[in-house]
């Protein structure tokens, strides 16, 4: 199932490659999230690693890995975001998008430890300099699970390097 999530991320990257190379920016970033998975409760220390492509300054394709040792949670996600600029310099941006991926949680409370997830996110992105941005947002994911509460939400804060 992890292979499917990797394929989804690669398809997102391939779609971004259709844009001319001069219109592309690449990004890598780190972050923290307050992850509430509704099965074992909130996770302390949930880390985010992400990398992607920004096309035409407004279309972003990201591959994201989220990990929490505390709740034994791993998420592999691919997402598309639209960045709506609030100023002419494109430093202040509203972000909205969709996400698909795979979530694995090694806990005794779950019979099925891994399942596909899909959902959306919204947030605010601030481009500090030409090469550094920060983002705060909220993501809601639904899971392909038989659990009565098969959703996951998180608030996140990231810092990205753009090149």
Written description of the protein model:
With 163 residues, this protein is mainly beta. The protein has one helix spanning 2-16; strands at 24-36, 46-55, 59-68, 73-85, 92-105, 114-127, 132-143, 151-162. The protein has an eight-stranded antiparallel beta barrel. The N and C termini lie far apart (32 Å). The model has no long low-confidence stretch (mean pLDDT 84).
Give a quick summary of the entry.
The chain is mainly beta and 163 residues long. The protein has one helix at residues 2-16, and strands at 24-36, 46-55, 59-68, 73-85, 92-105, 114-127, 132-143, 151-162. It contains one helix and eight strands, in the order H-E-E-E-E-E-E-E-E.
CA-based shape: elongated
Q: Mean of the pLDDT scores?
A: 84
Strand content: over 45%
Structural class: mainly beta
Jot down its keywords:
1 helix; eight-stranded antiparallel beta barrel; 60% strand; 163 residues; mainly beta; single chain
How are the elements arranged and paired?
Layout: H1 2-16, E1 24-36, E2 46-55, E3 59-68, E4 73-85, E5 92-105, E6 114-127, E7 132-143, E8 151-162
């Amino acid at each position: 199932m992890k292979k499917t999530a990797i394929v989804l991320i690669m398809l997102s990257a391939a779609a971004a490659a259709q844009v001319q190379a001069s219109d592309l920016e690449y990004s890598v970033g780190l972050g923290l999230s307050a992850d509430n998975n509704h099965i074992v409760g909130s996770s302390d220390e949930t880390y985010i690693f992400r990398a992607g492509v920004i096309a035409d300054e407004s279309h972003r394709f990201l591959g994201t890995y989220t990990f929490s040792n505390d709740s034994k949670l791993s998420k592999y996600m691919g997402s598309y975001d639209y960045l709506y600029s609030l100023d002419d310099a494109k430093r202040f941006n509203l972000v909205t998008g969709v996400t698909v991926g795979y979530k694995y949680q090694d806990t005794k409370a779950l019979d099925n430890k891994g399942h596909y997830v899909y959902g959306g996110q919204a947030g605010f992105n601030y481009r500090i300099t030409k090469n550094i941005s920060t983002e705060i947002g909220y993501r809601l994911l639904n899971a392909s699970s038989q659990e009565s509460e098969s959703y996951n939400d998180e608030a996140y804060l990231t810092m990205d390097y753009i090149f």
